[in-house]
Amino acid sequence: MKLMVGKSADSTAVYLIEDTKALNLTAAMPEAGTDLIGLITTPALMEKLRNGDVSGTTEDAASIEPALPVTAPGKILCLGLNYIEHIKEGGYDIPDYPAIFMRTRNSIMAAGEPMVRPRCSDKLDYEAELMIVIGKGGRYITEEDALDHVFGYTVFNDGSLRDYQRKTHQWTPGKNFDNTGAIGPYVVTPEDLPAGAAGLKIESRVGDEVLQSSNTGNMIWSVAQTIAIMSEFTTLEPGDLIAMGTPPGVGHAKKPNPRWLKPGETVEIEIERIGICASPVMDEADIATQKVTS
Question: pTM, whole model, 2 decimals?
């Protein structure tokens, strides 16, 4: 099942995507709400969808402007160094415990919204990543039970300001600039993907330039292992988001010169059977000018 939260006719709704058509679930069953948290926390609504018990008018899916799948996630947890070749290109040792960091709500935005290069740095990098949307929460979740806690999978671009990431041993500054982490536009439920979304092609590109190309089967820590590890130190809650790390090919590691994102480009992150997360790159100063003149 492919779901999308989006804006159409000045309202935000949850949509069921089938080929090129979008069924407005918020109109068909208002209790679903205007983002995925209603479906996440009310299993009976998902059961109605799976049974085909929901009907209504459809719209052209291409006409809907994407919004965040979960408007206010409680936590945005991110895994670093989860592909061996990416670890090597960054000059790190292969860890025996995953690198984990967090993102703020202000740092993320919906697919299609501008990825902002801030005025204080031109070293904006891309990172293609699989992202988990947590369905059922819990603490000390076992690896064997972990996939039962997944509501769905989406696409994430973990935009990073590399100079700020390396100012300290903690990555927080470089990973949390406003409007640098694009999510969506689709969330695909587990029954439509391989277990743990393993074995899917993952790629980043600008136009015809392929920047990264790998497979989610190359992750060191699987989705199930990651959920088990993270739930040891924090209680996972419905609507939490977990990013699964990026494969090799990031801009800062390109030889002989780094490949930074530039205003005017559109970076696309694609994961097989989930979708494409496209983000136009804009300079912070240009956005400020637009706001003044609009």
Answer: 0.96
